[in-house]
Model the fold of this input.
Amino acid sequence: MRHDQTAFAVADGNRPAVRSGHLIALLVGLLGLDNLLTLNFLGLASGWVMAPGLALLAALVVAVARAPGGSGIPLGRLAACLLVGLGVLLLGGEGHLLYANYDWIVRDAVLQDMMRLPWPFAYAGHGEPMLLRAPIGMYLLPAIAGKVAGHGALDAALLLQNGLVLGTLLALGSLLFDDARARRIALLVVIGFSGMDTIGQWIADAAQLHPFSSHIEGWAVFATYCANLTSILWAPQHALAGWIGAVLFLLWRTGRAPLAAFLAAIPLGLVWSPLATASILPFAAWAGWESLRAHRIGAADVLLPAVAVALAAVPILYLHAGSGAVGAHLLTPSPALYILFVSLEAGAWLAAAWLIQRGGRFGRPTFAITAAMLLGCALFQIGMGADFAMRMTLAPLAILSVLAADLLSGGAPRKAMPLLLLVFAVGALTPLREVSRAVLHRPTPALRCDFWASWDASFPAFTKATYVTPWRAMPAFMQAAPRYAAPPLGDSRGRCWGGPWQAARFGGAA
Done:
């Protein structure tokens, strides 16, 4: 391949290709735009702020696109990855053509509020004005599309945006595998990768006598590690933020992406998901240390991340405001349950990667960080649920799935393949159960409530502190912006949506 500075290059037998650097620049540009739109959401988007912000973002995108190195991705492969990305998100209910999981009750309410209400707004009628303070990066562009062209545009824009990001990540990830056969196997493994939740649920059934539900990943109760497909179907904003970091790290590790681009994406991803973005920080710290130790740190490796931090500074302050109300603490499960959990969720693949490849072709430090995070994240909790374990393992689980794909695509000896395939097949039962809901249930009904009432109707036992904070908790310069007082919409007595949320496609309510 010739490394020119145009958007198109040549790869694989003179077929037209897109340079990987331009795809990375696309991701950085999208994340950066969402950080600037957060200023608009907060009522801070004056010309004195937006003009230099847009100039900085344009310079950052151009610098990432022009960075040396990278590879050509054939247009046919890119198109196939984009179609796969759209297909996966359709299965998760985006576009409302198929069933959407229960978490979308609140997520759809947030999207609709951001579409219908003037920015900035605060929820009124709850003691004091409450600001929507959440990782809103995924919602901003679709909400603007909805303001311009109506509710149908809202759904379509969300699907297209997330499909573009997921498809781009799949295309970039394909560069980690050298031939078409390995790439096809890797795609199947990454999509089907999961811990062996079925075994865990069987054990939990016998020990605790609770039902074997269609969503089985919470079998250990104290912690949850999600299958890749579960993460993207239930919480795409978190999954995509974590996977951007994981893919860029692996591309840097194999010499296919510059350190500057990898590091610049990290602060910009916080507005999509702080915890998922934080899941890449240990890998970023090691990448920076390794580059510094080897005297491979250049001016761009410092300047580009600094520009990204400047663009993300106000969104970071916004996300931090009032976050202390969420709460955090260590967990103390029984040693037997902890060992069972980590063994079934990650231990088999960690053991295989170490015993067969001594950690894999991405190096022992990569393996060590992955293993340490997967062993440790189960012991910490933020808020009332398992969000910390689910989000902080997004990057290490994605990297572990690539290590598993490496083994199954030819990196393991023939005699080990039956056992590895069995472990993969048992794990794949989890994403198959997740996909089954899209087939067995009807599309979900339209919402009639705002965020507040939808939360009360779906998660009444949980605090809203992960989504809202008092307006007075914001920094003074943010409080100064005029705000629209949004009156309550809907109620929490089962009338927030028309009909049952889960309705069987081939029978009555599920």
User: Anything to note?
Assistant: Strands lie at 8-11, 15-19, 72-74, 121-123, 130-132, 328-330, 380-382, 468-470, 484-486. Confidence is low (pLDDT under 50) at residues 1-7. The longest strand covers residues 15-19. The radius of gyration is 22 Å.
